[in-house]
């Protein structure tokens, strides 16, 4: 059998690639995978993790005192890092136009959004950002609670006073995150709306979440 085909039998599945991507981003537990990939059913997730374990790409470790398991990459798994990264770069260069809001999972996107917030651009202490997705009727309100140590995402009101309100359609929020527009231009064209203290609004470009691949430019059409 061709080595490429042998690899594709294990890796040629979007759920498997998404799980590996999460592991490269630091997720190690089943619950974390569920938050990051909400469209993936628990049964499919369990099956894909077992397939990766059987292929010795990951190992499952359980602490003696708890039933909670951590999934860790093996040496074989770590070698897939550049492959997954290059697939993402290729997607930004050649398939960016096909990344449509109607095909985007809101929960998965907001998980990426909250963990790419630049906390260094925020003041000391907690900053609460209320993200309102104006063209969605469900999963349209998200609280992001950020400080220098951690960034938490809540789909329900955590009871904290809101510092900044960020309102946009999902398509415009994705465009901002992907770097198709910057904060100043998005505000001026009213594709996003920001409301809050002046110092947070004026420094929004410094703390706004952005894709780690924002510098990858789409390829020119032939």
From TrEMBL:
Protein keywords: DNA-binding, Transcription, Transcription regulation
PROSITE patterns: HTH_HXLR
Domain HTH hxlR-type as annotated: residue spans: 2-99
Cross-referenced InterPro entries: HTH_HxlR (IPR002577), SCP2_sterol-bd_dom_sf (IPR036527), WH-like_DNA-bd_sf (IPR036388), WH_DNA-bd_sf (IPR036390)
Keyword flag Disulfide bond: no
Keyword hit for Transcription: yes
Gene Ontology molecular functions: DNA binding
Protein name: Transcriptional regulator
Source organism per UniProt: Neptunicoccus cionae
Higher taxonomy: Bacteria, Pseudomonadati, Pseudomonadota, Alphaproteobacteria, Rhodobacterales
């Amino acid at each position: 059998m061709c080595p490429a085909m042998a690899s594709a039998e294990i890796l040629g599945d979007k759920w498997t690639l998404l799980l590996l991507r999460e592991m490269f981003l630091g997720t190690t537990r089943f619950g974390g995978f569920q938050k990051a990939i909400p469209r993936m059913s628990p049964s499919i997730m369990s099956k894909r993790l077992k397939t990766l374990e059987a292929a010795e790409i990951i190992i499952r470790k359980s602490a003696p005192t708890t039933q909670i398991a951590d999934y860790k990459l093996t040496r074989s798994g770590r070698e897939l890092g550049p492959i997954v990264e290059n697939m993402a770069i290729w997607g930004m260069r050649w398939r960016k136009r096909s990344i449509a809001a109607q095909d985007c999972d809101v929960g998965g996107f907001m998980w990426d959004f909250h963990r790419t917030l630049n906390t260094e651009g925020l003041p000391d202490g907690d900053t609460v950002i209320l993200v309102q997705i104006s063209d969605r009727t469900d999963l349209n309100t998200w609280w992001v609670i950020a400080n220098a140590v951690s960034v938490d995402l809540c789909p329900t009101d955590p009871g904290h006073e809101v510092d900044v309100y960020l309102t946009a359609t999902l398509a415009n929020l994705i465009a901002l995150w992907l770097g198709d527009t910057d904060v100043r231009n998005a505000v001026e064209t009213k594709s996003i709306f920001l409301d809050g203290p002046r110092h947070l609004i004026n420094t929004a470009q410094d703390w706004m979440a952005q894709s780690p691949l924002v510098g990858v430019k789409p390829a020119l059409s032939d």
